Amino acid sequence: MRATVQPLRPPSRALMFLEGRAIHELGAFLGALPLLGLAPRGDGHPVLVLPGLVASDISTRPLRSFLKNRGYAVSGWRQGRNLGLRDGVEQAMIDLVRELSDAHGRKISMVGWSLGGLYARQLAKIMPDRVRSVITLGSPFASSPKATNAWRVYEMASGRRADHRQDGRFGAALSETPPVPTTAIFSRSDGICAWQGCMEKPSARSENIEVESSHCGMGHHPAVVYAVADRLAQPEGKWTPFDRGGWRSMVYPDPNR
User: Fold this and answer.
1) Residues 135, 110: contact at Cβ < 8 Å?
2) Nearest-10 Cα torsion for 45, 50, 51, 54
3) Contact 25, 137 (CB under 8 A)
4) CA neighbor of 166 nearest in space, from 118, 234, 113, 201
5) Which residues pair with 46 in a beta bridge?
6) Local confidence band at 6 (pLDDT 50, 70, 90 cut-offs)
7) Please, what sign has the CA dihedral across residues 36, 220, 67, 47?
8) Distances (CA, A) of 116 to 33, 77, 202
9) Residue 190 burial by CB count (10 A; 0-12/13-18/19+): exposed, middle or buried?
10) Strand locations in 87-245, DSSP E?
11) Spatial CA neighbour of 216 closest among 19, 83, 59
């Protein structure tokens, strides 16, 4: 008799309540800027940062400003609030990837927060010749939309069913790993998305990095910002997994524990 696989459940109400710590995580980011200055500098390649559900480029401004100061050509997604895959959104993102890649004559990296990470993964599958790497922050690509506490918000904001974004029309299946170096950053204390659904299948060019962060603060949490800078700084074509050795083992838990 085949065992029944239980679907992932969304995070508990207690974890949702703890999402208020995102404000303190922003303060921690500002206080940690001198130490974050020790993060490796970039090589100037373009980086596209995509916001989460109902958020805009304002939400990613701290991260984008930091990455700009580390030497990257950084862009927001330029579409106002992220209200899901409404008409024209997919094509506008494809056009922006082409624009950034052509303007700099290089492949681009993408950093996507939550829903923005789902977009980043799909864009990399559609345009692998223009994408250098993908980093997702608390993005639920490996689970049902109802394994989050945000699926009703998605349906109200987009006017579409939550499972519409998993129908395969925008790239391949969400859970399929992009054909470029891919890093999934997740937190077991995420109050919005079930953390298990935010984990990548590790391979020669894909990995998971665990942090102790809220979902709403992930885009400016000091440990996340450092990890993003570390991943982006790798030479093109020479990707290696994140090194948790030394002091990093005290900041980044073992994702396989």
Assistant:
1) yes
2) 150
3) no
4) 118
5) 73
6) low
7) positive
8) 25, 9, 21
9) buried
10) 108-113, 131-137, 182-187, 206-211
11) 19
Residue 82 token pair: 């992220």
- State yes or no: pLDDT of 2 exceeds 50: no
Amino acid in position 43: D
Please give the single-letter amino acid code of residue 207. Answer: E
Beta bridge partners of 186: 210
Which DSSP string corresponds to 123-153?
HHHH-TTTEEEEEEES--TTS-GGGBS-HHH
The tokens for 9 are 């459940």
Answer for the pair 192, 19: CB distance below 8 angstroms, yes or no: yes
Tokens of 21: 């710590």
Could you give the CA distance from residue 175 to residue 201 in angstroms, rounded to a whole number? 9
Contact 135, 228 (CB under 8 A): yes
Phi and psi at residue 99, in whole multiples of 5°? -60, -45
pLDDT for 140-178, tens place per residue?
Answer: 999 988 899 998 998 888 888 876 544 456 767 899 999
Q: For residues 247 and 54, what is the distance between their CA atoms, to the nearest angstrom? A: 36
Residue showing tokens 């910002």 = 225
Q: Amino acid identity of 108?
A: I
Measured CA to CA, the distance from residue 147 to residue 134 in angstroms comes to: 23
User: What residue type is 197 in one-letter code?
Assistant: G
Q: In what helix (H) or strand (E) does residue 250 lie, and over which residues does it extend? A: helix 248-251
15-29 burial by CB neighbour count: b if 16+ within 10 A, else e? bbebbebbeebbebb
Q: pLDDT (tens digit, 9 = 90+) per residue, 173-197?
A: 899 999 999 999 999 999 999 999 9
**CA 125, chain centre distance (Å):** 15
